[in-house]
Automatic annotation (TrEMBL):
Pfam families, per the entry: FAS1_DH_region (PF13452)
Protein name per its UniProtKB record: FAS1-like dehydratase domain-containing protein
Residue intervals of the FAS1-like dehydratase domain: 74-134
Superkingdom of source: Bacteria
Transmembrane segments: none
Listed InterPro entries: FAS1-like_DH_region, HotDog_dom_sf, Mitochondrial_HTD2
Length: 281
């Protein structure tokens, strides 16, 4: 099924963007941050780069799920559903308000797998982000393509071992948070704002919380406890969806001897939904 897709490996695309003042102001509002300066040249939290470099494809080129149609830059994977399975990101320099930025994306690998819910294909994207003074960040994303929904639920997954939490904040993401982030990032994926489509089109019980939203709020909770610090690097893995208007917890353990620590979103049934290993500057 993937032999014809291998020829897509190595394809690249460049997108220009700007860390514009209105975007920084809106992200500060979304995260309840009053300590982020909006003056041109002011340092912006590194992890806010995730709101930039949207696809911005013409409306006529979107698929039924609200994503750009496959077969343009993304390979024509013959599976209908998609989600972000994981990401690894290292920041090399700070970003500032007003910086003109560029991201080069390369298709690094295409890998078929069989998961709990059937056939899957992972497309690894490697992003290289540069600014006025050179390299800013390098990121790898694992985009998972899944089979259409089934009537029978997937067999249960063995629960991940949950670390001992140093802190645990109650969190209940609501539709307004999901909408505002999707609007800010120009993310058209309907599972994050169209409840009827999420339920009837992809079989979810409610709106799905964007993995970038979970990551954003985990980092914000960590940085509130570490003022003046920045995220230096992180590895994230999505294990199961977080759903809108359901109680959850933002958690972290104590840093290890190497300075790394684990962050995770814990659902109300105790299951770990997303796990991040991160370091601070």
């Amino acid at each position: 099924m993937t032999d014809d897709l291998q020829s897509w490996i190595g394809r690249t695309r460049r997108v220009a963007d700007e860390m514009a003042t209105p975007l920084v102001r809106r992200m500060a509002a979304l995260t309840d941050r009053s300590d982020v300066a909006l003056d041109r040249g002011a340092v912006v939290p590194n992890h806010w780069l995730t709101m930039l470099f949207d696809d911005a494809q013409p409306q006529s080129q979107l698929g039924p799920d609200g994503h750009p149609s496959k077969g343009d830059f993304l390979p024509p994977v013959p599976l209908p559903r998609r989600m972000l399975g994981g990401r690894r990101l290292t920041y090399h320099a700070p970003v500032h308000v007003g910086d003109a930025l560029e991201r080069e994306t390369a298709i690094a690998a295409i890998t078929p797998k069989v998961g709990r819910s059937g056939a899957m294909i992972f497309v690894m994207l490697r992003h290289t982000i540069t600014g006025p003074n050179g390299l800013l960040a390098v990121e790898e994303q694992d985009v998972a393509y899944l089979e259409a929904k089934r009537n029978a639920p997937a067999p249960p997954e063995k629960p991940a071992e949950t670390p001992t939490a140093e802190w645990r904040d109650a969190w209940r993401p609501d539709p307004v948070v999901l909408f505002r982030f999707s609007a800010l990032a120009f993310n058209g994926h309907r599972i994050h704002y169209d409840a009827d489509y999420a339920r009837d089109g992809e079989g979810y019980p409610a709106l799905v919380v964007n993995g970038s939203v979970s990551t954003l709020f985990l980092f914000e909770a960590l940085l509130r406890r570490n003022p003046g610090r920045q995220i230096a690097s992180y590895e994230a893995r999505t294990m199961q969806p977080v759903f809108c208007d359901r109680p959850a917890f933002l958690c972290a353990d104590a840093p290890g001897a190497d300075g790394a620590r684990n962050l995770w979103v814990e659902k109300d049934d105790g299951a770990m939904a997303i796990r991040i290993k991160t370091r601070l500057t």
